[in-house]
Write a structure and sequence with these properties.
Bound molecules: ligand F0G
Helix content: 25-40%
Strand content: 15-25%
Largest sheet: 6 strands, mixed
Radius of gyration: 21 Å
Number of helices: 14
Order of helices and strands: EEEHHEEHEHEHEHEHEHEHHEHHEHH
Strand order of the largest sheet: 4-5-13-10-11-12
Length: 400
């Protein structure tokens, strides 16, 4: 095995097969390995292969993910990069379960099987739970998910149940569900696959690697991502650091992590140059990122520092307006994903993002993940009930 677990604080090393999520000193763990291939030629060649391992936008980069032959893959990734109005949109909602979570989950469930887990669990606002349920079903593992009661979209609950998971509806917010699942996994010997699990982060790095590959390894100026529990912000910094060190890209893009203003602990810390960690009672229409105490805080700070990145906040009104624009481009996304485009507008207005800079927004979830958010946001005059007559059609749409 060529990888190990390493503490991001004190650098202590642990065997990759040890089941642990934090160091004895309390800091988070990271998966590390000796070196990455210097050339991207194999990654590029695999795009033409029919082997599921090569077709996966995660395992295509396997030398930088995990050294194993027994892989649980749908396959996932290989999502499209759209260019609209001079901005690129990497649509992670095109993953098998409709969100970017599948990229981390294929690795975490592969690891769960490798360490002999019987059951896997996560706390979730609905996307991680859907992904966990689907991959656990494929791997033959019991799936138990902890959701904040009454705070997850109907579609995500249905999807999670449909794939066969047991859904615990925790009376409390996401942060309470997160604390509970950590305790339950520790005490009951269940394998935890939230992004505090460093193998999740390894899979999510490939969002960045694949978008760099889509751009033929010409780094953009900005990569813009929603920020909730801060798994992606953490993964993106690690991916960029590794790609830059290996020579896959010749310059470092800047990360922009965008929070909803009602769930903005990371933005508050950034505004004080990370002088202290903040925790808030979160409230936002973007239920996926209704998170007040993100677990990957320290890793995300490192990502922002490494990439000379920024953290911005947008209001619910701003993110919903941006969502409507993305939806009406014919692309579509769930509310949390639209923080990216809303953030770009704000960062352009304040001069942080300059004219002509190349921008990639990562759309994290599919439009159908939250149908209620669409219906609450579209003009009601476009929904017209009519009698089944041609005259009624003419009157309704104004075409004769
Ligand atoms: N976008 C979507 C659609 C999400 O579902 C999430 C997180 C994020 C962005 C934030 O990413 O946590 O890496 O900063 N969803 C988690 C879940 C919390 O349970 O599905 P992050």
């Amino acid at each position: 095995m060529s990888e190990w677990l390493q503490c991001i604080g004190c650098d202590s090393r642990f065997d990759a097969m040890e089941i642990r999520y934090t160091c004895d000193c309390g800091n988070l763990l990271s998966v590390e390995r000796d070196a990455l291939p210097a050339s991207t030629a194999d990654f590029d060649a695999r795009r033409a292969s029919r082997d599921p391992i090569d077709q996966s936008g995660v395992w295509r980069f396997r030398e930088g993910i995990m050294d194993t032959a027994d892989i649980v893959t749908h396959p996932e990734g290989a999502t499209r990069l759209y260019e609209r109005g001079g901005i690129f949109f990497k649509h992670e909602g095109e993953n098998p379960t409709g969100s970017f979570k599948d990229r981390g989950m294929t690795v975490a469930i592969t690891q769960a099987r490798r360490v002999g887990a019987r059951a896997v669990a996560c706390a979730s606002t609905g996307n991680t739970s859907s992904s966990l349920a689907a991959y656990a079903a494929q791997a033959g593992l019991r799936a138990i998910v902890f959701m904040p009661a009454g705070k997850v979209s109907a579609g995500k609950i249905a999807q999670t149940l449909g794939y066969g998971a047991t859904a615990l509806q925790v009376r409390g917010d996401f942060d309470a569900a997160m604390r509970l699942v950590r305790e339950a996994c520790d005490r009951l010997g269940i394998y935890l696959v939230n992004s505090i699990n460093p193998f999740r982060i390894e899979g999510q790095k490939t969002i960045v690697w694949e978008l760099l590959q889509d751009l033929e390894w010409n780094a953009p100026d900005w990569i813009v991502v929603p920020a909730g529990n801060l798994g992606n912000t953490s993964a993106f910094g690690k991916a960029l650091g590794e790609a830059h060190r290996a020579g896959w890209i010749s310059r470092m893009p800047r990360l922009a992590s965008i929070q909803a203003s009602g769930a903005n602990p990371f933005f508050r810390s950034f505004s004080e140059s990370f002088a202290q960690r903040h925790r808030v009672a979160a409230e936002t229409v973007a239920s996926a990122i209704r998170i007040g105490d993100p677990v990957s805080y320290e890793k995300a700070v490192a990502s922002i520092r490494l990439t000379n990145g920024v953290v911005e906040e947008v209001t619910d009104a701003e993110l919903l307006a941006a969502k409507r624009e993305i939806d009406e481009m014919g692309i579509g996304c769930e509310p949390a994903s639209a923080t990216t485009f809303a953030g770009v507008k704000k960062l352009r207005a304040s001069g942080v993002i300059r004219d002509g800079e190349r921008i990639v927004c990562v759309l994290t979830g599919h439009i159908l993940k939250d149908a209620d958010a669409i219906m609450a946001n579209v003009p009601r005059e476009r929904v017209i009930e009519i009698d089944p007559t041609l005259a009624a059609v003419e009157a309704a749409v104004g075409i004769k």
